[in-house]
Design a protein that fits this description.
74% helix, 186 residues, mainly alpha
């Protein structure tokens, strides 16, 4: 019992010591807080818009390639069906297997290209967010902001705390373009 009482006393003193610096800082100067809507900055940035357009063009080209390849494979399949009667069963099976291999190979190639495009956007988004964080840090330092929160983490905030427009303007001044090359593994 005495041991528990001593432990309680030690913990109480430690808590009081830990809280004291926080209340002293809070009494000296109010905490300056800002809020940023990351998604609005990303969606509104010129660099992200350009990257999305480049990737959309690459996706369209990939889609056209897929349509052309599907048409080619269907034609080969129809030709094979027409030739079935003229071919020996073993030869027909070999040609069917070859066509299946071509289909699988094409499918794998196109899936790989799609994954590369997805990875390119993720890398571009990551790079833009890194630049955005640097810009937020500069704004926070210049305006003596102690804490910057994501608007996703905030339920209600006064409009005067929102620095999203300022961050977006600085992002657009600083980052004109982000790479849309396929992501490289580090």
């Amino acid at each position: 019992m005495l041991k528990n009482l001593r432990l309680f006393a030690v913990l109480t003193v430690m808590a009081a010591v830990a809280i004291t610096p926080l209340t002293a800082v809070a009494a000296d100067a109010p905490l300056k807080i800002a809020v940023v809507n990351y998604n609005r900055v990303i969606d509104g940035s010129t660099a992200a818009t350009k990257a999305k357009q480049k990737l959309a063009a690459k996706r369209d080209a990939l889609r056209k390639e897929l349509i052309a390849k599907e048409k080619d494979l269907r034609t080969k399949q129809q030709t094979l069906v027409k030739e079935k009667a003229k071919l020996k069963p073993e030869d027909f099976k070999v040609k069917v297997k070859d066509l299946e291999k071509e289909f699988i190979s094409t499918n794998e190639k196109l899936n790989k290209q799609k994954a590369e495009l997805d990875g390119a956007w993720l890398a571009a988004d990551r790079d833009l967010r890194e630049e955005m964080l640097k810009i937020i840090a500069k704004i926070a330092e210049a305006e003596k902001i102690d804490l910057v929160l994501s608007s996703d983490s905030v339920v209600i905030a006064a409009q005067k705390l929102d620095i999203t427009a300022k961050v977006l303007a600085d992002v657009n001044k600083t980052v004109s373009e982000i790479s849309t090359s396929p992501a490289k593994k580090k």
